[in-house]
Amino acid sequence: MAYIGDQYTLHAVGAHEAGLHAYWLDRANSSAGTAISNGIRVIRSLDELPAALTR
């Protein structure tokens, strides 16, 4: 099960802690300077999602 959300702490971290494959949809490229937890993948647009799901 995968969860894609646009809020890092609420969506991505929450999904990861619940045992889901977590994807942070960071359209604003605000991840610069953010320590991304292992197991959370960052995508910039939904166009990247199909390829990310097959990795």
Based on the model shown, name its key terms.
single chain; 55 residues; alpha/beta; three-stranded parallel beta sheet; globular
Structural class: alpha/beta
How many angstroms separate the termini?
14 Å
Helical region count?
2
Largest sheet: 3 strands, parallel
What shape does the CA trace take?
A: globular
Strand content: 15-25%
Uncertain ranges: none
Instruction: Give helix and strand order, one letter per element, not per position.
Output: EHEEH
Question: Averaged pLDDT, please?
Answer: 94
Number of strands: 3
Helix content: 25-40%
Oligomer: single chain
Question: What do these coordinates show?
Answer:
Strands 1-2-3 form a three-stranded parallel beta sheet. It contains two helices and three strands; from the N terminus they run E-H-E-E-H. Helix 1 links the parallel strand 1 (about 1-5) and strand 2 (about 20-25). The two termini are about 15 Å apart. It is α/β, with parallel strands linked by helices. The protein has helices at about 10-15, 50-55; strands spanning about 1-5, 20-25, 40-45.
